[in-house]
Predict the structure of SUEL-type lectin domain-containing protein.
Amino acid sequence: MLCFSTTLLLAATSLLASAGVPTETVTTCEGNHVHRLSCDNGVISVQTVLYGRTDSVTCSEGKPQQQISNTDCSLTNTEDVLKRRCDGKRVCELNSNIFGASDPCRGTYKYLQTKYNCFPAVHQVTCEDSLAYLHCDEGLVIRVYGADYGRRDRTTCSYQRPASQIQNTDCASPTSHVSESCNGKNSCIVKASNSVFGDPCAGTYKYLEVAYTCEYPVITPKDTV
């Protein structure tokens, strides 16, 4: 998961709405099925999440009436879970098991439904022990949307790595270090290493995932004096 600026998230949501950016919807029926969010351009910005059932039609094929009749069923705090897992990424895959044993309505066949936008940000991945170069055009400054150090899949930064080093895909360390080091600068270099971010999963080869935008610097009154 990535560590986010609340102010930037609110601004991003407002910007996406005002710009008419389309909202994508993904619905996955209950069970060990892959719930996949993806952006061809930009990064994921989760808007709403439902895990439960609010109608008797969705994911109802072949199900007895008693399993789809309860349409007032929803698990709480699902949006926070999905935001922590997916915001700032280009691709995010999970299933309903991410909520653990929580069951908002036993006996009801549920589904996971996520609505999200693709936020126009630069997405950068840097393999462990390499340097991440964040930069903007002249006159613009960096604003980090999110950063995470760990591993979420077996393919990223996997070239010639032994299987034992890429098997753990439940490894994440959301970090504010990148935003603290880079926000407000035109360019910035950060090393993707355990010495900088700590080691969230010993023995796993990790990578740094960063999403950022380039903005005009904010001019404060004292700057104009």
Remarks:
- The helical segments are 6-18, 78-86, 177-182, 194-197.
